[in-house]
């Protein structure tokens, strides 16, 4: 054995770990039993001359297994379901004297008890849940088999052999890459752990290669399309490569719980050289800004070709790539967005916001942050490791936020368990529970070192949780799958259950929640367009018969969408006198020049208003964010929208700002219409328009989408999209 191939077993195991789908050792073409007598030629026995896998897109194997969309010329089937192969021999097959079987092998050290070496017996009838091959046709020298895999089979790329028994040993076909077979999870099979019983849901959560991601903020929800591209050329191999890079043991790759947990760690590069590097600091040197990506294909293919993490991602990019990974392997998956998502560093169900005695925010003490929104994924599977009732949608999150068992990953956590407060069940349920259920606690840090709880907002966090609707681009509200309505008895019970199972809530806020001030305060921010002034209106309402004087404080900040403040661009203090049973409005003008110079890529402004009633010393506090309306890219097409025909796509952008945009990149994508591409413009002057034309030749028919994005040094998160209906090629 050479130095390079020698493996240290450490005295504990007979074979090295089998953790690479790509690594392989050939099975011997001849396994003699004893000495072959002189004059006996093994080639005179039954010999295989060729194997046919019926692997074209239109063949029944791919159509019946819903794998005909994959751009891959190998056979791709789903586990637990039968498929057809044909074996040609050198003479007619005689079942009375000839014995053969099909073998499937994965990895370098195949073992039958690990599921990495699968001898498929020839049987008279196929049995549900078991590997088997039934002869369905014998014709001349050919035999056609119906092969059925186990619904618990490893998911990956298998090598296939045919072995023939002779009195003197086994003759086996030699290694042939053309007979390699991919086996995937099967949501159409009732015995598979990812079985989904609704056809429309399977079409949406497994077969749809274009999605919609919701972002912005709860009062101004914005959408963008995302190309998952799970069927594109090379993506399936890249998803298997991701598991290889994780050194995931092949024997665990049939378990969707393990696969999704490994995926959630590997889609981020934080501690394992995974797919995407996260960056939230608005500096994207030597990489692509997160807002510029239009889909997952470029990211995954670059990761495999470079063998290095790709720069850069933020939560919706991690979620988009993770969704591609899950759907490509056959696990039903969707992206969800949680508005006002708590990033609670110690999962104590409290977002502590510390105030100075004058009402100003104490940024040194305030460590928790509230994200305007946060995207994660849900994957559909049974959970045999949990009590009955906790299967179905599982929250999985690949954005690197918190360490879980030594790695940056999150989930799968049962959504049903989160709703009912059963945070004791693996994996990472307390963190997800806190993301949607935390209370906002306003605490005054006094100069003498004491802390006083001033106000509790129990409804701010997890305000709205949404996903794309089935069969359309609209929004589906799924808040009630994560939490009961505020104030319901069930909601209180779920919280008590979570506390019983170890979720921490160090401050008793019951009394604070019940005592209400005699004065209400709220404020509204008008919808604002990038580069224009906007107005903020604060309303004070006195519900008592007393006179009050109020000292109010406004802080306006440029924030990352994660709720972290970059810079305060405006602060204002004003006094208000309130007559009994009256209300008063205070208007504050925000000028474009105050915020434009410091904008971050999502153009998010955060306003924080605190007020102290001088007579009662009560503190009122409210915070809101607004996302400025950003100009869009315009996409146009001309020419026949037919498979195989040329059509011209034009992307157009007009600069609405008073400054020149520099280093402008426009990205264009359209699954089934064009490969992802991009073009650079050195600069776009104020009010000027640029156009980019490309000739595309669609290869997939049906409803499709063209998606474009633009990024520059000073303006990002510019999108455009166009729905197109691609017709089939007319038959001659």
UniProtKB/TrEMBL annotation:
Query: What positions constitute the catalytic site?
Result: 315, 374, 397
Q: Report the co-factor binding details.
A: Binds 1 Ca(2+) ion per subunit.
Binding-site list for Ca(2+): 437, 439, 486, 491
| Gene3D superfamilies per UniProt | Immunoglobulins, Transglutaminase-like
* Region (Disordered), start-end ranges: 1-31
- Write down the InterPro entries for this protein, in alphabetical order: Ig-like_fold, Ig_E-set, Papain-like_cys_pep_sf, Transglutaminase, Transglutaminase-like, Transglutaminase-like_sf, Transglutaminase_animal, Transglutaminase_AS
Q: Report if keyword Nucleotidyltransferase is assigned.
A: no
Any one annotated GO CC term: cytoplasm
Q: Which domain of life is it from?
A: Eukaryota
Task: Write down the EC number.
Answer: 2.3.2.13
A GO biological-process term:
blood coagulation, fibrin clot formation
Cellular location of this protein?
Cytoplasm; Secreted
Reactions catalysed, as given in the entry: L-glutaminyl-[protein] + L-lysyl-[protein] = [protein]-L-lysyl-N(6)-5-L-glutamyl-[protein] + NH4(+)
Instruction: Name any one GO molecular function.
Output: protein-glutamine gamma-glutamyltransferase activity
> Which cofactor is essential here?
Ca(2+)
**Which UniProt keywords are given for this protein, alphabetically ordered?**
Acetylation, Acyltransferase, Blood coagulation, Calcium, Cytoplasm, Glycoprotein, Hemostasis, Metal-binding, Secreted, Transferase, Zymogen
- Please state every residue range assigned to the domain named Transglutaminase-like: 307-400
Q: What does this protein do?
A: Factor XIII is activated by thrombin and calcium ion to a transglutaminase that catalyzes the formation of gamma-glutamyl-epsilon-lysine cross-links between fibrin chains, thus stabilizing the fibrin clot. Also cross-link alpha-2-plasmin inhibitor, or fibronectin, to the alpha chains of fibrin.
- Family, per the entry? Belongs to the transglutaminase superfamily. Transglutaminase family.
Binding partners and assembly: Tetramer of two A chains (F13A1) and two B (F13B) chains.
Q: What is this protein called?
A: Coagulation factor XIII A chain
What is the species listed in this Swiss-Prot or TrEMBL entry? Rhinopithecus roxellana
The organism that produces this protein has a lineage beginning with: Eukaryota, Metazoa, Chordata, Craniata, Vertebrata
